[in-house]
Design a protein that fits this description.
Distance between the termini: 23 Å
Mean pLDDT: 92
Number of helices: 18
Number of strands: 8
Largest sheet: 2 strands, antiparallel
Low-confidence stretches: 1-34
Radius of gyration: 22 Å
Strand order of the largest sheet: 1-5
Strand content: 5-15%
């Protein structure tokens, strides 16, 4: 088996802690390697915490959260174009933009392998935490909940992207054929979703509320995050009542009055934030690798690579709704003065750029202080609204939709029938969550992908593009244990 691709079979922890060990996972940096030969080194609170810190640290990686992830979640969709310059393909971003990708398209291998590397770290943590008996039991219980939340988060990414995928639920034993099969045999998406649901239920039972964490632990997974992610998982499976039930358990959060404040450093981990990946520009290696840099304005007066640029279609969707509040907090324009006084060059290479990826203090650095907002209270309101509407409780759904609209300073919806409210909620998700890595998956799950892509000059092939192709390297390595997705 190629370690480069499925690294789950490694028994030693060398490389697991390739980030420094701090109780605040924001402070991880690639400075340390350890071995599992003597677990006594980690048989204390700090050692136990380090096992889980290493999972969080994976989300700072280029392959996990940056170029490939931006490509497959945004550039594929009607929200974004490749951007940059015509001659700069970004490895495969032109192919992703055109929806002409294949099993050999590099971004899919990065997406697939990086998430399994993170799952490996979670499995390692879940294996060794029970053995660290000198660590506080309550701490170990909480850390177990964090590991399960993060593992579920990664499997949700994989199942949405590829459909059926291998379900690796423990650290494999080298030479064990059953474990080889486990790593190379796809399980049905129904089995994967069931596994995700169990992990999140376990996590919700073990994790504290956000308010119970101290300052050093801001950003860690919480009970609210587990319930919110589980609500989203149920939404994708059309388990409407279960989605509502989970939304009802997400308490203690509120909408940020000014939309743009969410995306400033001062808005990180605020009252609306349920879960976000933490970036710090204070020390090299502690930000999400080049997340800001690759999406920054390019050319004269610019500071970045210019990829993942908002489409005219998205800009017009905001404008048609009278939604200048969210439009001007989501899309940077040529000649625009940003909230910190910086002016986007009037001769920048592209007309629009992703404002949500912007960092004021670390504009050009590879490591910045920008966080990725993954779960916000606004989305919980929209999940609950959608689920209630599908249950026939349209009158209860409308006020939730309007809460989100009112924060955006636009009029309440005029939709009243179940069908119209459904479309209004879907449109609201687009405007509210643009560039937060959901648009492609939303289009697929709601059946809008073919028409939305056509409106943006792309061809979505029904029966093929609902899932991405599995990397050819995995199919080759599987040696018949797994087949490629249909029509690839």
């Amino acid at each position: 088996m190629k370690k480069k691709y499925i690294i789950i079979s490694a028994l030693v922890l060398t490389g697991l802690f390739n980030q420094s060990c701090s109780e605040d996972f924001i402070d991880v940096a690639p400075t340390e390697q350890v071995s599992a030969e003597d677990l006594s080194l980690y048989n204390n609170n700090e050692g136990a915490t380090n096992f889980v810190n290493s999972i969080y640290a994976k989300f700072l990686d280029w392959d996990m959260s940056t170029f490939s992830w931006i490509g497959v979640t945004s550039i594929t969709s009607d929200d974004a174009d490749k951007g940059s310059t015509p001659g700069d393909t970004g490895s495969d971003k032109d192919i992703l933009d055109a929806l002409t990708f294949t099993p050999s398209t590099p971004s899919f291998e990065s997406l697939f392998s990086s998430n399994y590397q993170g799952i490996n770290r979670a499995n390692q943590a879940l294996k060794y935490l029970p053995q660290l008996t000198n660590a506080d039991q309550n701490l170990r219980n909480r850390l177990t909940g964090e590991a399960k939340f993060l593992r579920a988060f990664m499997y949700f990414t994989l199942v949405r992207s590829f459909g059926d995928v291998p379900l690796i639920d423990h650290v494999p034993v080298l030479g064990n054929e059953e474990d080889v099969d486990m790593q190379l045999t796809r399980k049905s998406k129904e089995e994967v979703y069931a596994f995700i649901e169990k992990d999140l239920l376990d996590a919700a039972a073990a994790l504290p509320n956000k308010s119970e964490y101290g300052t050093a632990d801001i950003g860690r997974a919480t009970k609210g995050a587990a319930h919110a992610l589980l609500a989203k998982v149920y939404l994708y499976q059309k388990k409407w009542q279960l989605a509502v039930d989970q939304c009802n358990l997400v308490t203690g959060y509120s909408l940020t009055p000014s939309f743009i404040e969410i995306y400033k450093v001062t808005g990180e981990n605020n009252a609306e934030s349920i879960f976000e990946i933490q970036g710090s520009g204070i020390e090299t290696g502690k930000g999400i690798q080049q997340y800001t840099q690759v999406q920054g304005a390019r050319g004269t007066g610019g500071w970045g690579w210019g990829f993942n640029t908002p489409t005219q279609n998205l800009y017009d969707a905001f404008t048609a709704e009278g939604d200048t509040e969210r439009r001007d907090a989501t899309i940077m324009k040529r000649g625009m003065t940003l909230y910190d006084g910086r002016v986007v060059g009037a001769d920048a290479d592209n007309p629009y750029y992703n404002y949500k990826a912007y960092s004021s203090a670390y504009t050009t650095q590879s490591s910045t202080d920008t966080n990725i907002r993954y779960l916000r209270y606004a989305e919980v309101l929209l999940i609950k609204a959608e689920a209630l509407n599908e249950l026939g409780q349209t009158s209860a759904a409308i006020p939730l939709l309007n809460q989100v609209r009112q924060r955006a300073k636009i009029n309440d919806t005029t939709a009243s029938s179940q069908a119209d409210v459904r479309l209004a909620i879907w449109k609201e998700r687009r405007l509210e969550l643009a560039f937060e890595h959901d648009r492609w998956f939303d289009l697929v799950r709601t059946g809008q992908a073919e028409s939305a892509m056509a409106a943006n000059g792309k061809t979505f092939i029904v029966g093929k593009h609902e899932v991405f192709p599995l990397p050819q390297t995995f199919i080759t390595e599987a040696k018949g244990r797994s087949k490629q997705n249909l029509n690839y």
